[in-house]
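Task: sequence design from structure.
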């Protein structure tokens, strides 16, 4: 007897099972036509041979499927690496554009802040001049009131 190993695998859309069933049917025909002539041991040998052949073909099929899966894994790993590199590259470009935008807006804000600083400084000067003028007018007003009272 032969031992048949059972391996778990998923069969994706392949129509070629790799098992040649024409030999099996031919042997069955030979067995059916000569079954009365064949001693039990010869029948067992033919059946064992057929079972072993099917087992070998099944094992070959499983090995091909496993090789195909290994190749699929390599392709996916390569794809994943390329995709990660591309994503990193695009992220770096976005960062560079973002920082460039920050610099551009920063220069515009710096100019606006400089202008605001100058305006506030001028406002401060005008406020001090206005306060001085107000004090002068207040002094004149007090002086006029004292003169009018006298």
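Answer:
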């Amino acid at each position: 007897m032969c031992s048949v190993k059972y391996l778990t695998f998923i069969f994706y859309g392949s129509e070629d099972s790799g098992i040649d069933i024409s030999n099996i049917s031919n042997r069955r025909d030979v067995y059916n036509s000569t079954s009365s002539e064949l001693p039990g041991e010869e029948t067992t040998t033919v059946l064992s041979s057929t079972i072993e052949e099917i087992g070998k073909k099944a094992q070959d099929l499983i090995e091909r499927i496993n090789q195909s899966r290994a190749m699929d894994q390599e392709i996916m790993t390569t794809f994943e690496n390329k995709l990660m590199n591309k994503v990193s590259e695009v992220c770096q470009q976005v960062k560079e554009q973002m920082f460039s935008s920050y610099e551009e807006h920063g220069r515009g804000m710096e100019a606006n802040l400089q202008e605001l600083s100058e305006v506030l400084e001028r406002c401060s000067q005008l406020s001090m001049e206005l306060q001085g003028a107000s004090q002068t007018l207040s002094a004149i007003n007090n002086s006029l009131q004292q003169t009018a009272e006298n």
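DSSP finds two helices and no strands in the chain.
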